[in-house]
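Structure first, sequence second, as always.
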């Protein structure tokens, strides 16, 4: 559920709502907007009554969130999610084009693809791999290429198996 605090709520008032959510078995997630604080209370919807929150003086309104991916919804997080990739702001005002192969087969393939992607005007090269298609020797080569590009840490979604 979505709990919208009254404008200029104090830290103590917010804590009261957080404690009420926890007491009802919900996990609260706080978003501080420009004029108010929004608390997304996630958990078993039938375990908590909206009345418990509507009765609190510091709460302006309470709404149930029925769509999936509640924490990613515009109700909970009204601002755009913007994150940098090597100096490019993804999610900002500019259009970012990412392109690349679904499965990286070799160093020469990804380098050839990188040149084609840049020539076509894309901003970001992306590449995936199908774990079932790689033996241990190929995985070791991919890890070696990652190390030469700054280490596996630069590739947070890369999970070597």
């Amino acid at each position: 559920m979505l709990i919208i605090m009254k404008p200029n709520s104090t830290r103590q008032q917010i804590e009261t709502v957080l404690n009420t959510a926890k007491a009802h078995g919900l996990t609260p997630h706080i978003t501080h907007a420009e004029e108010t604080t929004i608390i997304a209370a996630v958990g078993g919807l039938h375990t908590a009554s909206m009345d418990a929150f509507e009765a609190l003086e510091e709460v302006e309104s309470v709404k149930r969130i029925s769509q999936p991916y509640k924490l990613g919804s515009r109700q909970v997080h009204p601002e755009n999610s913007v994150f940098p990739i090597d100096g490019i702001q993804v999610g900002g005002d500019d259009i970012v084009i990412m392109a690349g192969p679904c499965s990286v087969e070799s160093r020469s393939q990804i380098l050839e693809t990188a040149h084609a992607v840049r020539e076509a005007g894309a901003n970001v090269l992306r590449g995936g791999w199908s774990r079932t298609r790689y033996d241990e020797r190929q995985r070791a080569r991919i890890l070696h290429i990652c190390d030469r590009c700054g280490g596996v840490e630069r590739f947070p979604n890369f999970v070597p198996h």
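Margin note: Helices lie at 11-23, 50-54, 107-119, 136-148.
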